[in-house]
Design goal:
mainly alpha, 6% strand, 249 residues, single chain, 3 strands, 3-stranded mixed beta sheet
């Protein structure tokens, strides 16, 4: 089951906390092989020809999103053991509620809800001539598909939550920077030409604005992991759990 969680608690214990023992909280993570030695790091993501065209109508934007998710399904299906096809559900125009945050979002957004990618289309995506914002959001949601279907998300969520705030923050940054890296892998797999990742690294996703999230990492580190994933095209480049502190700040 794909599980997307926005924020782990800084105190108390998560429901499934005691799955692991001997966890080192930071510098880097040890004792959690589901994170540091996951099978996905040995996998190859297939290249997929993906002819994407985003017009400036609701129908063309909806088709763009549907085609993009279809291409991501094809690219990643052999890389993930027991892969489950992912569907897209488009929210009604007046449905602004995010299932992951419980908050209302005025603009367009995408997110994982249970085992589907839910998308709300608004004028910002529909009227945009560039597809950068749409692609980035969908690819980021897809990264949560990867962590969800490989056990990375569950292992991260299940880490002990009685660490210091700074240690917890670093754990969260390792997770979200890994999502960025998988965005780079997806872009490479779909043969998307990206010469500059700065617009992606500087842009914030809807939940970062809503929650004033501290866990995305510095812009320089977001750029580093996006470029790592894109340059290699392999999930093995995205093992943030074994990275030095400086790369997950």
């Amino acid at each position: 089951m794909i599980r997307m969680v926005i924020l782990r608690p800084l105190t108390g214990f998560a429901t499934a906390m005691l799955f692991f023992s001997g966890v080192a909280y930071a510098d880097p993570v040890t004792g959690v092989p589901e994170l540091t030695h996951n099978q996905i790091y040995k996998a190859k993501v297939a290249g997929a020809s993906c002819a994407l065209t985003k017009g400036t109508s609701a129908s063309s934007t909806k088709k763009y999103v549907t085609d993009l998710v279809g291409c991501l399904n094809k690219a990643w299906k052999l890389a993930i053991k027991d892969f489950q096809q992912v569907k897209v559900t488009f929210k009604e125009a007046d449905d602004k509620r995010s299932c992951t945050t419980g908050l209302d979002v005025n603009g367009s957004f995408s997110e994982i809800c249970a085992t589907e990618i839910h998308v709300r289309l608004a004028k910002d995506w529909i009227k945009a001539k560039s597809d950068v914002a749409v692609f980035t959001s969908i690819a980021h949601a897809w990264s949560s598909v990867v962590t969800g279907q490989t056990g990375i998300g569950e292992a991260w969520w299940s880490m002990q939550n009685d660490a210091s705030e700074s240690q917890m923050n670093q754990q969260n940054r390792r997770y979200y920077l890994q999502l960025d890296c998988f965005v780079g892998v997806s872009a490479k797999a779909l043969r998307r030409a990206v010469k500059d990742w700065k617009p992606t690294a500087r842009g914030k996703l809807f939940w970062e604005y809503a929650l004033k999230n501290k866990y995305s990492g510095k812009t320089a580190n977001r750029l580093y992991w996006l470029e790592q994933g894109y340059a290699s095209g392999k999930p093995g480049a995205c093992n943030t759990w074994k990275a030095a502190d400086s790369k997950v700040a």
